[in-house]
């Protein structure tokens, strides 16, 4: 890498400090950190899984042209009732500081999922958040539109969506302290979120992202200046990397 900008250095430092990059660049035993955690992977019917072992971590998944055929995407059995606030719902209230602290703990707790992931697995270092995350809730989130048909979503509903889909778990009880705590913690994270320094450090530099974020079918993949930073790209096990 020649003469990285200060901003870029900052993002790389974030990646390295989170251990994500370090893990990605680890030995063969860690060949593909995404594959075993991909909630779609075991589904033989998923035509995308074979081509993109990182699908679950792909923040562009909602725009993936394979999504229509992907059993984990639209119509994948996500019941809007699990996601949308129930009638008469009042958010959990409690001491703010202790809720934030509890939320931070839960965010890193893999026992909330059925697939070994925690929220932090995907969102460490603000990873996987799109620019929409910077806007006040409710707002439009691509995954909520593609998977549940919602034009906008509240933060507590977004937590439920990530519980149900990527975490492959049941939604949290609406009145629970757990939901209140995760919401409080994510609200704090959101305050420090800047869309340009987002989650996906490649997005801003990827000339194709807006048009075709689906790596396997991305005609610009070979020209993608972010490839080297993709924690999955350097993996022999990643068929997307081989095509580069
Ligand atoms: C397998 C990866 C994965 C896991 C695990 C995961 N998420 Fe997400 N999450 C995503 C992706 C991908 C998006 C981006 C969706 C979009 O913008 O279309 C997202 C988006 C979000 C957003 C922000 C959407 C916005 O733009 O406003 C929140 C908040 C969120 N997740 C919270 C959570 C919480 C809380 C957990 C744990 C209960 C969790 N996520 C677990 C992948 C994951």
UniProtKB/TrEMBL annotation:
The keyword Signal applies. SUPFAM superfamilies: Cytochrome c. This is Cytochrome C peroxidase. Keywords: Heme, Iron, Metal-binding, Oxidoreductase, Peroxidase, Signal. Residues 98-190 form the Cytochrome c domain. Transmembrane segments: none annotated. The lineage of its organism: Bacteria, Pseudomonadati, Pseudomonadota, Betaproteobacteria, Rhodocyclales. PROSITE patterns: CYTC. Residues 1-31 form the signal peptide. It comes from Denitromonas iodatirespirans.
